[in-house]
């Protein structure tokens, strides 16, 4: 296994050691969680979350996995099968939750109705809300996601190209809890590339769904990844230097210029928000009012 | 002429108005120079400096052009021909200076000997030093270069990917004079893309050398440009937003964190530097000592 950015090759055993060290350093350096603290893990069925699940389990962490079934036809069926099969095979605790049973709409039903926002943005917001609510309801102090170096560097590039000041002030492998109902959010894989995680998954026969989500075709983050892949190819180590250099400078450059935001509680769901009604509840209201209108229309047409 | 980033098309007349407005705004907003102040312009023979020369002349600015003949064979011969021809055709003041006559080496002779540094970096440093010295010796208070939006955005991307704190604190369309012998440096084309300048040159029959400099093949800035071109294609306006957003935030984010650097004078040439001997003079010493060594070697071989 050749790692250009480290200018070295690894045998499988050494790669495993390299991989563990990266994750353990990420966890320790950023005080993500201890081996005693139960960690909630969102597993999609993709290589990152499946590998993180396997890693945390074999390294002796207390992990509880939750899988949201997004109701995306064949893609969601296969993702769920992979996650459930892996849970059985390794006897790992897992809860599967159908998004539709929680919010009355599947993700495709939502994104079809919300045309003015990229699908990934809407879906991400819903998943973050549901994962945080699940963590809070079930008394977890921390939840983990499988975001990797490529994800984080691409997000950073997008935030910098568009100078998203608020996002730049907060982008981090650990989002501390700013409110009792907002659970700490951690990304133990933030120093590992997609390629390294793919190798890890293969090395340990970790099953995962290889295709991209069918709704993510137009996601801008893919363009940022492509641009960074190109630059990484020309100059190995670029992504790593970019992200890690940013994290060293974030507080000094970006966070110190931000005003503190006061978090209140949403008047509908009670979860933390800077607004009167949180963006999740506003989305739900919008969907429900669309539904009512279309039912009225149908009733009207029916009576004609 | 279609400008995707402005979501509009222009006829030649309107394009000319658009172009003028961009340059005039850049000059005024950044207080680059007035119509009374003589401006020294470095002209390479490329589209940017040739167009800037033409623009400043026809807009009534007092421009004195200087062309450095880099001694790069056919490429330099053709560049010089273009610059000299244009000067004659429009009766524009021009001084041509052979770099070799000033420093005893042509640019290829320098870069052949300095293998541990990219050619563009060495050549750029020499040109900046010579242009500043020429400006100072000839009592100019300001000199201009043809750097465009693509150049500036690519430089910025490189500085950000590698978190070059010092460069980030200072990147600007106007570098104010930090020392009496360091002349103000301005880039009136920093809001215009390469494509727009190419159109302008065609529209006004401005001759220019179209090929890249033969020594610049491995320049990293081309990779940054390629990556940004890709992102611009996917999302028009990216480069503009990236650079202009940076300039708005530069002082707040990047410059305020930098310590002030004390500028002294080089003990050899007397020009401003933060070191005992400036980097230009150190390069010259290195070249001369290499030459002496090789002459000694030759003498030694000759006596055998």
Description:
The structure is a homodimer of 304-residue chains. Chain A is of the alpha/beta class. The first copy, chain A, has twelve helices and ten strands. In chain A, the strands form three sheets. Chain A has a six-stranded mixed beta sheet with strand order 5-4-3-6-8-7, with helices on both faces. In chain A, strand 1 and strand 2 form a beta hairpin. In chain A, helix 2 crosses helix 9, helix 7 crosses helix 10 and helix 7 packs across helix 11. The longest helix of chain A has 25 residues. The radius of gyration of chain A is 20 Å and the shape is globular. The termini of chain A are far apart. The relative contact order of chain A is 0.14. The model of chain A has no long low-confidence stretch (mean pLDDT 92).
Sum up the overall morphology of chain A in one term.
globular
Rg of chain A:
20 Å
Q: Which structural class do you get from the secondary structure elements of chain A?
A: alpha/beta
Approximate strand percentage of chain A: 5-15%
Strand adjacency order, main sheet of chain A: 5-4-3-6-8-7
Task: Tell me the quaternary state.
Answer: homodimer
Gap from first CA to last CA of chain A: 70 Å
Instruction: Give the biggest beta sheet of chain A.
Output: 6 strands, mixed
Largest interface: A-B, 26 and 26 residues
Q: How do the helices and strands follow one another from N- to C-terminus of chain A?
A: EEHEHEHEHHHEHHEEHHHEEH
Q: Total number of helical segments of chain A?
A: 12
Mean pLDDT of chain A: 92
Low-confidence stretches of chain A: none
Count of strand segments of chain A: 10
């Amino acid at each position: 296994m050749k790692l250009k950015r480290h200018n070295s090759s690894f045998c499988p055993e050494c790669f495993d050691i390299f991989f563990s060290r990266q994750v353990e350093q990420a966890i320790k350096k950023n005080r993500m969680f201890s081996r005693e603290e139960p960690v909630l893990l969102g597993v999609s069925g993709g290589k990152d979350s499946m590998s993180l699940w396997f890693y945390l389990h074999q390294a002796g962490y207390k992990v509880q996995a939750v899988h949201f079934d997004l109701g995306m036809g064949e893609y969601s069926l296969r993702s769920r099968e992979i996650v459930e099969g892996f849970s059985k095979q390794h006897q790992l605790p897992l809860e599967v939750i159908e998004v539709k049973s929680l919010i009355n709409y599947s993700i495709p039903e939502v994104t079809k109705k919300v045309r003015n926002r990229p699908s990934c943005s809407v879906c991400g917001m819903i998943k973050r809300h549901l994962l945080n609510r699940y963590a809070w309801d079930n008394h977890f102090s921390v939840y983990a996601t499988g975001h990797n170096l490529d994800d984080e560097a691409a997000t950073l590039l997008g935030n910098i190209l568009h100078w998203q000041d608020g996002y730049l002030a907060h982008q981090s492998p650990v989002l501390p809890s700013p409110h009792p109902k907002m659970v700490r959010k951690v990304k133990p894989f933030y120093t590992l590339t997609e390629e390294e995680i793919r190798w890890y998954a293969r090395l340990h026969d970790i099953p995962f769904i290889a295709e991209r989500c069918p709704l993510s075709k137009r996601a801008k983050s893919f363009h940022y990844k492509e641009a960074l892949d190109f630059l990484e190819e020309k100059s190995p180590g670029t992504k790593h230097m970019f992200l890690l250099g940013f994290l060293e400078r974030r507080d000094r450059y970006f966070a110190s210029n931000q005003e503190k935001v006061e978090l209140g509680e949403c008047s509908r769901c009670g979860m933390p928000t800077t607004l009167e009604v949180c963006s999740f509840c506003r989305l739900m209201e919008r969907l429900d009012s669309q539904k009512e209108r279309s039912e009225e229309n149908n009733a009207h047409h029916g009576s004609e």
